[in-house]
## 1
Amino acid sequence: MDGRSLVTDGDRGGTGTIFLQAALNGARTRLDHPAIPVSVEELARDAVACVAAGARAIHLHPRDREGRERLDAAVVDEVVVRVRTACEVPVGVTTGAWIEPDLDRRLALVRAWRAPDFASVNLSERGATEIMAALVQAGVGIEAGVSSVEEAGLLATSGFGDRVTRILLEPVDVSRDDAGAAVDGIHRALDRGGLTAPRLQHGDGEATWVLLVDAIRRGIGTRIGLEDTLNGPDDERTSGNEALVRAARQFISDTG
């Protein structure tokens, strides 16, 4: 199966419902939560469970055999292929600058990718525009991560606003009380910039469930997973990614 052929269908949510992505691990380790998937076998297992629970795409941070985040094509492509083969939905990765701080080195690594369906690019990081160009060269879709009004403006003037797979609205470190106002401002800035790509809104920490419910209300995509939160909607510690996806899908079903 060609994973990239699944991207469009996945963004429609598969069954006409809100598009839900599962973010499996991020930069977290088992010190954060014992259910964090690290190995390719664990990632594949979690991806299968999350898709069965209602996720329509997977976002993950590939690790080497020592559990370190890597951007090397040998690691990224192997992990993506094995996970996508197992779960049969699009699989995306990160381009996070903390994994390879040297921009030239990071660009070379990204250009060598062949397997990911899409990759997230943090507009807050130096070299974001160059990383988006490298993804285009590699034939990998772009998830443009926008965390502020200023970054929405940067995307609008980047030349890639009409070439992204989707725009991630992801204000970081905001309280649950301030989260709504934060995304309102970003949405307005994206509208002013004429950016019409599909939007996926999510939060982290205490704002996670607030922004997920708000995304459902807006009728746009959202995501959930241990990368974003260690707690379920009741603020109790979650058992893992599958439980988070099931809870998110229940919110979507309850909304109708």
Note: The beta strands are 20-23, 57-59, 91-94, 118-122, 141-146, 166-169, 199-201, 221-224.
## 2
Amino acid sequence: MSSNREVHKDFLYYLKYKDQELIDLYLELRTFLLDVYPQATELLYHTHALTSVYSLSEKLGDSFCMIPIYTNHLNLGFNKGALLPDPRKLLKGSGKLIRHIPITNSEDFDNEDVKNLIKAAIELSESELKSLKESSFNIISKIKR
């Protein structure tokens, strides 16, 4: 299902200015994440980084993961990564909650350890969400151009 989900035109507008290697890596990571949770709602932002956020609803507060794309690199971010089980110590960062995995190639994310972190992040978000209704995915662009 996820491999058929097109990238929103507003996001593509800015994504095309990135190096092709970074674009390809982003698309692979996005597909991987959406294969784990195909019903995720995608919230798209262009602030200090071009970012796709993955949420259980249309609210940023219900999100579990994000992919910020910077000039020369990207990360797989976890909004409440400090609360997740991370036996392999994949998560980086020292903030109160947010943690990330630096992504330089597909081996950095295409494995069971990262899949388990994503699933744990989803479970944590679901446990905090008051009402989760079954629905199909949405893509919501917050990008101003």
Note: The beta strands are 41-46, 50-55, 63-69, 74-78, 99-103, 139-141.
